[in-house]
Design brief:
31% of the residues lie in helices and 26% in strands. It is α+β, with helices and mostly antiparallel strands.
């Protein structure tokens, strides 16, 4: 059976990257982020005008970031729907959902212990900006 063509189905994505310096930190921090991802999904589902489609797969960075040797990328597709309340010219503000998620991530119990060894990067991107490591 062919895998679902996730990156061909949607035009807009939230791109999360877990970036770390060691295997130990990767296991702990990526587990923390993954365990809290549902909170971000629930916050985004509450935003008027859009539908979201989380991709359960974690993509290995494959050394694509010189500063951070280990990590993974995760993607949430964002679709704007008139059924969900979207209309041409509507501005949809994701800051509240993202700030709340950041605050939850910052509650990681090992945060101080591993200071400087981990980072979470989150960006809104278009299909054309999907990184190479997720295209293969």
């Amino acid at each position: 059976r062919e895998p679902y063509p996730f990156f061909e189905q949607f035009n807009h994505y939230l791109w999360l990257e877990v970036l770390v310096r060691t295997e130990e930190v990767y296991r702990k921090f990526s587990g923390w982020v993954e365990s809290k991802l549902r909170i971000l999904v629930m916050q985004l589902e509450a935003v008027n005008g859009m539908l979201i489609h989380p991709n359960p797969y974690q993509y290995d960075l494959c050394g694509s970031d010189g500063e951070w040797p280990l990590g993974c990328g995760m993607f949430i597709a964002v679709a704007f729907s008139s059924d969900a309340g979207a209309q041409p010219g509507l501005t949809i503000d994701l800051r509240g959902a993202i700030m709340q998620f950041r605050d939850v991530i910052n509650q990681w119990v090992d945060r101080d212990h591993y200071a400087g060894q981990f980072k979470l990067r989150l960006r809104r991107i278009k299909r054309s900006e999907i990184p190479e490591y997720a295209r293969d």
